[in-house]
Amino acid sequence: GAGVSQSPSNKVTEKGKDVELRCDPISGHTALYWYRQSLGQGLEFLIYFQGNSAPDKSGLPSDRFSAERTGGSVSTLTIQRTQQEDSAVYLCASRVRADRTDTQYFGPGTRLTVL
Amino acid sequence: GNSVTQMEGPVTLSEEAFLTINCTYTATGYPSLFWYVQYPGEGLQLLLKATKADDKGSNKGFEATYRKETTSFHLEKGSVQVSDSAVYFCALTGQGAQKLVFGQGTRLTINP
């Protein structure tokens, strides 16, 4: 079946603009994660959704970052008033259920460049 | 908090050489341990995993054993190929946690 998909694959924006990144998880996967991969910080957790539970937002670096998951499926990560340090590859992952032993399946990522 | 430390890269080997990439972790309780691989131009994909002490994960000729006593999960392969050139990430999910905590990644280049 289809894997995790993300759009756009590349996004170039100007400092101060808002951006929205989209993630379509694998069908039937109840858990969804966002991570960020940057040169200076490596791979960092941002936020986690599980079913109808309140999301774990503990990894969001500032209040400019927010995410939502509609209908338990598609998720959107929004970055307001982008800064140059937000430039990174944003990765989405999904998992069948909230079991830490289960594999997380990653999408191809969205490369964000803030000029 | 939980953390993962990998050997510094980059690592360059000749084809058919033996590979070891060291990974050690800090975590309370019994984390689940993973190796992910990122081939050039591709996304992260699971290579292997182990979810309890003394388990051995294996895939594509790679192996790693969950060693609780040394808090390690070293990745090994007996004979590497050019196609193994990639960035390798060691990661864990801690007990009672959901997120993956990654090491810094090790870039591996295999020369023919």
What is the total tally of β strands of chain B?
Answer: 12
- Note the beta-strand portion of chain A: over 45%
* N-to-C span of chain B: 41 Å
Low-confidence stretches of chain B: none
Q: How many strands, which pairing sense, and closed or not: the largest β-sheet of chain B?
A: 6 strands, mixed
Our Rg estimate of chain A from Cα atoms comes to 13 Å
Query: Portion of residues in helices of chain A?
Result: under 10%
The unreliable regions of chain A are: none
Largest interface, chains and sizes: A-B, 22 and 25 residues
Count of separate DSSP helical elements of chain A:
0
Number of strands of chain A: 10
Could you say which structural class the secondary elements and strand pairing of chain A correspond to?
mainly beta
Overall pLDDT metric of chain A: 92
Number of helices of chain B: 0
Biggest β-sheet strands, sense, barrel of chain A: 6 strands, mixed
Shape of chain A: globular
What does this structure look like?
The complex is a heterodimer of chains A (115) and B (112). Chain A has 115 residues and is mainly beta. Chain A has no helices and 10 strands. In chain A, strands 2, 4, 5, 8, 9 and 10 form a 6-stranded mixed β-sheet that branches. Chain A has a 4-stranded antiparallel β-sheet with strand order 1-3-7-6, with no helix packed on it. Chain A is globular. The relative contact order of chain B is 0.35. Chain B starts with a strand and ends with a strand. Chain B has strands at 3-6, 11-14, 19-21, 23-26, 32-38, 44-50, 56-59, 62-65, 75-77, 86-93, 101-102, 106-111. Helices cover 0% and strands 50% of the residues of chain B. Chain B is mainly β. The interface between A and B is medium-sized, with 22 and 25 residues.
